[in-house]
Specification:
This protein is about 70% helix and about 5% strand. The chain is built from ten helices and three strands. Strands 1-3-2 form a three-stranded antiparallel β-sheet. α6 (about 130-150) packs parallel to α9. It is elongated, with a radius of gyration of 19 Å.
C-alpha cells in the first residue's frame, strides 16, 4: 500500500510533469519512504490520472536514481542515501562558491535588495521559538540561495544547484534545528552578501564554499 502524500496539481503543466513533480517531492520529503513499493494503479487513483503518466513519471524518477524498477515486480523508492547527501554537499560546496563568484559580477540592484530583505526576515523568524521558526527559516534559506543562483547568470548552474537544494531538503531542515545553527547560517549569508556587494569575488567564493561545509559539519557529515 502506498503511503499518504501531498498532491500538487498544476493546470499549466503537462500531466506527466505534474505526476513526476508530485512523486519526486513526496520522495524527497520522506512522504514516500525508501523500500516502499509504488503501485501504478494506486498512484493513478490517488492522482486522478491514467496509468500512462504514472508509468512515465516512474521511469523518469528511475533515471534520477530516486526509484528502482524491478522487472516483473514493480517500482520501489530508492530515495537519498547518507552517502548521496555527503556527495551532494561536497559537490555543492564547490558549485555554491562558483555561483557566488559569478553572482559578484552579474548581480543586479533588485537582486541585492531581495537578498537583504530575505536576511532581515530570517533574523526576525530566528528569534521565534524552535517549532515556529524551523519552517520559516528553511524556506527563507532556500530563497536566499535561489536568488544567488539566478544572479550567477548561468542557467546550467542554476538548474544543477536547484536540484541539489531539493535533494537535501530533509537534511537542511534537520540542520536548522541544531542549536544556534539558524543564527550562524544567517550570519554567513550576510557575510556572503557583503562580499558580493563589495565586488570581492574571491571572498564571496570562499565564504559560500565554507558555508556549505559548515552545514555538513553541523549534520555530522564527514568531508
Amino acid at each position: 500500500m502506498t503511503s499518504d502524500f501531498t498532491v500538487h496539481m498544476d493546470e499549466y503543466l503537462p500531466l506527466r510533469e505534474v505526476v513526476f513533480n508530485t512523486l519526486r517531492q513526496a520522495i524527497l520529503k520522506g512522504e514516500l519512504k525508501p523500500g516502499e513499493r509504488l503501485m501504478e494503479i494506486a498512484l493513478a487513483e490517488k492522482l486522478g490520472v491514467s496509468r500512462t503518466p504514472v508509468r512515465e513519471a516512474l521511469r523518469q524518477l528511475e533515471l534520477e536514481g530516486l526509484v528502482k524498477i524491478v522487472p516483473n515486480k514493480g517500482a520501489y523508492v530508492t530515495g537519498i542515501t547518507g552517502k548521496d547527501v555527503k556527495d551532494i554537499y561536497l559537490v555543492r560546496s564547490l558549485l555554491e562558491g562558483l555561483c557566488a563568484r559569478w553572482a559578484t559580477g552579474h548581480i543586479t540592484e533588485k537582486q541585492i535588495e531581495k537578498l537583504e530583505e530575505i536576511v532581515l526576515l530570517s533574523e526576525f523568524h530566528a528569534n521565534k521559538n524552535q517549532k515556529e521558526k524551523t519552517g520559516q527559516v528553511v524556506e527563507l534559506d532556500g530563497k536566499f540561495h535561489e536568488v544567488l543562483y539566478e544572479a550567477s547568470n548561468s542557467r546550467i548552474l542554476e538548474h544543477v544547484l536547484s536540484d541539489f537544494h531539493k535533494y537535501v531538503q530533509m537534511a537542511r531542515q534537520a540542520s536548522v534545528t541544531r542549536e544556534h545553527r539558524a543564527e550562524k547560517s544567517i550570519k554567513e549569508h550576510k557575510e556572503i552578501l557583503e562580499a558580493i556587494k563589495q565586488k570581492d569575488a574571491d571572498k564571496a567564493e570562499q565564504l559560500a564554499n565554507e558555508h556549505i561545509l559548515k552545514v555538513m559539519q553541523n549534520l555530522n557529515i564527514e568531508a
